[in-house]
Amino acid sequence: MAKIFTGPDGQARCFWCAGWEPYLAYHDTEWGYPVADDIRLFEKLSLEGFQAGLSWRTILAKRENFRAGFDGFDFNIVAGYGPQDVARLLGDAGIVRHRGKIEAVINNAARAQVAVAREGSLARWIWSFAPEVPEHPPGEIPAKTPASERLSKALRKDGWKFVGPTTIYAFMQAMGMVNDHMPGCAHRARAEAARARFMAP
């Protein structure tokens, strides 16, 4: 499979965003660009958990419904969800209705509060696991890395759920903790520049 494709605007992009218009915007404006906002980090951890066994396309298509259902993924609100909220979400056809994953988000929201109380912010803790140097050659995308395994282990030790090392590596790619834009992709250098300007929490 070619690792680069030329978009309708003539710009070279990573192969995986071909064929679906929302992927282009997600690739160009979000994926691989560093994020330090606690709510956005928690949202992405939650959505990656929902993606387990599914495709990101499925989740991205439902993202606004997830945001509406989970109060914008404000973990200080979600941590207070009870059985009625679980029932409400199980009845929401606009999201992935999986009890285990829904309950994991609620559990993880409480764990996020613990992390903030201990570390000062969720971002500060999570970014402490970002690798200082690339862990694989450009263009070779592993399912997991030593850094994702370390972060996954730390999250699970803290009681988080649906945070295996493969799920966490996808999270790290998306949040700009690593730069996995393909060589030749117009956004690889842009993401690298954004990372160079980024002040880790």
UniProtKB/TrEMBL annotation:
<feature type="binding site">
    <location>
        <position position="27"/>
    </location>
    <ligand>
        <name>Zn(2+)</name>
    </ligand>
</feature>
<dbReference type="GO" id="GO:0006284">
    <property type="term" value="P:base-excision repair"/>
</dbReference>
<feature type="binding site">
    <location>
        <position position="181"/>
    </location>
    <ligand>
        <name>Zn(2+)</name>
    </ligand>
</feature>
<keyword id="KW-0479">Metal-binding</keyword>
<dbReference type="InterPro" id="IPR005019">
    <property type="entry name" value="Adenine_glyco"/>
</dbReference>
<protein>
    <submittedName>
        <fullName>3-methyladenine DNA glycosylase</fullName>
    </submittedName>
</protein>
<dbReference type="Pfam" id="PF03352">
    <property type="entry name" value="Adenine_glyco"/>
</dbReference>
<dbReference type="GO" id="GO:0008725">
    <property type="term" value="F:DNA-3-methyladenine glycosylase activity"/>
</dbReference>
<feature type="binding site">
    <location>
        <position position="185"/>
    </location>
    <ligand>
        <name>Zn(2+)</name>
    </ligand>
</feature>
<keyword id="KW-0862">Zinc</keyword>
<dbReference type="GO" id="GO:0046872">
    <property type="term" value="F:metal ion binding"/>
</dbReference>
<dbReference type="InterPro" id="IPR052891">
    <property type="entry name" value="DNA-3mA_glycosylase"/>
</dbReference>
<feature type="binding site">
    <location>
        <position position="14"/>
    </location>
    <ligand>
        <name>Zn(2+)</name>
    </ligand>
</feature>
<dbReference type="InterPro" id="IPR011257">
    <property type="entry name" value="DNA_glycosylase"/>
</dbReference>
